[in-house]
Design a protein that fits this description.
The chain starts with 8 loop residues before the first helix and ends with a strand. By secondary structure, the protein is α/β, with parallel strands linked by helices. Helix content is about 35%, strand content about 20%. The strands form five sheets. A six-stranded parallel beta sheet has the order 2-1-3-4-5-6, with helices on both faces. It has a five-stranded mixed β-barrel with strand order 15-16-17-19-18. It has helices at about 10-25, 40-55, 80-90, 90-100, 115-125, 140-145, 200, 210-220, 245-250, 270-280, 295-300, 310-320, 340-355, 380-400; strands at about 30-35, 60, 70-75, 105-110, 130, 155, 180-185, 185, 205, 225-230, 260-265, 285-290, 325-335, 360-365, 410-420, 420-425, 430-435, 450-460, 460-469. It contains 14 helices and 19 strands. The chain binds S-adenosyl-L-homocysteine, iron/sulfur cluster and FE3-S4 cluster.
Length: about 475
Amino acid sequence: MLKDVFVPQEDIKAQFEAAQRVKEITGGGKKAYIATFGCQQNEADSERLMGLCRLMGYEKTYILEEAELIIFNTCAIREHAELKVFSKAGGLRKLKEKNRRIVTAVCGCMAEQSHRREKFLTSYPYIDFIFGTDRLHMLPQMVENALKGKKLKVYISGLSHDKFGVIAEGLPVVRESNYKAWVSVMYGCNNFCTYCVVPYVRGRERSRRSADVLAEVEALVKAGYKDITLLGQNVNSYKGEYSFPELLRRAASFEGDYWIRFMTSHPKDASKELIDVMAENPKIAPHFHLPMQSGDNRILELMNRRYTVEQYMEKAAYIKEKIPHVALSSDIICGYPTETEEEFENTVKAVDKVGFDMLFTFVYSPRIGTPAAEMEQVEHKIKTERFARLSALENLRAEELNSRFAGQTVKVLSDGLQDGIYKGRTGQNKIISFTLPQGFDEEKAAAGKFLQVKVTKAAAYTLEGEATE
Ligand code: SAH
Ligand code: SF4
Ligand code: F3S
């Protein structure tokens, strides 16, 4: 555990006071817009940022043009993610020219990379400030500085990646949904998979106290939340008062009808105990995301994943054996440096053998500062060709696997009417659209309600059905 990882509560209090001063400066009644790129961790962070915005007197808006505080919460996982941010950030120039009072900021994982900070500072001078992933709780202070015309543009800890990272408890939160919620259990990553930028931009692993996590889950359940996801880059290395399986078991034992999920579990330490806890508890949704990355042992070793294909297969088989109706999903990287045709074929075979309900397939993207970026690269054309081949295989497999739900009646959490069609998710996190039989009470199918749906059709990535009483 990092030393002094918890932000002292008096520092949080100082931020609350800064928020009041911001409100006085702007007069309140303003709006804030946050663009969130990347993973659930960023989505969860953005909800805290919005909590702080509200404290400063900015209400949430989804309309960029009406915001007076604009924050880009960025992702650095692949080049494509970074390019999206750069192209959107260019649009801020005009807004700022029209209204000089607008405050603009960039945070998240790109902000932790010095070459990206450089680019923001030189090519996007209309961005008022940039802040790192462990400076999130200081937003009020930073906004106050910007409003007072301070020129300090960069707020980062400045510590090397093996030393930085904090936990800030007690921040306000404005959640996107009133029935689905993220609950971070830990931050950072210690795994250093050789392709991945996360350990450098998120710092070392640090865990929230079990009591804090459980109190947050309990409050959410009491407030009527139905789908709660425990978040961490590798939840298995959670080190609170309880082990992760025990934390999960407790999080799933509050009174009420709700689902608990978690993301993400690293195959090297997804334990049988964790799988057993899932199998025993109906409130834990039957979905397991277990990123395989490659189906070839030489590549797995180069990736520093620290498991073999055989060990992966054994865990996947245990999950499928123990948890009836489980959906297994995975991530695969195509064209990791030096990957041969034969090695990629091994991945194709492994994917075919396991049978994933959902596969997130990525073209390898070199990340500056990671070991894999220095290795001999696979040609872009070959990478994309491998990507296409794997996606085609997965489409077939997913359809085949989904057919097991046809004719079954499944529990669904409704997302309500969308463009005239009722949509929802199953425990496996599969999208399902459904109709209501004549006389069905629409209230019972509203967003955030659980209901039973009989599946009438199963395509590769969607199910269709009719609600039953
Ligand atoms: N902590 C999670 C993954 C977070 S990143 C885990 O370990 O499973 C999400 C996914 O992005 C990874 O699983 C990986 O498949 C992909 N990814 C990470 N770095 C990448 C890179 N440089 N190029 C392509 N895909 C990458
Ligand atoms: Fe990246 Fe590996 Fe950590 Fe996941 S476990 S965030 S892939 S370094
Ligand atoms: Fe992207 Fe950072 Fe998440 S790099 S995937 S937003 S941890």
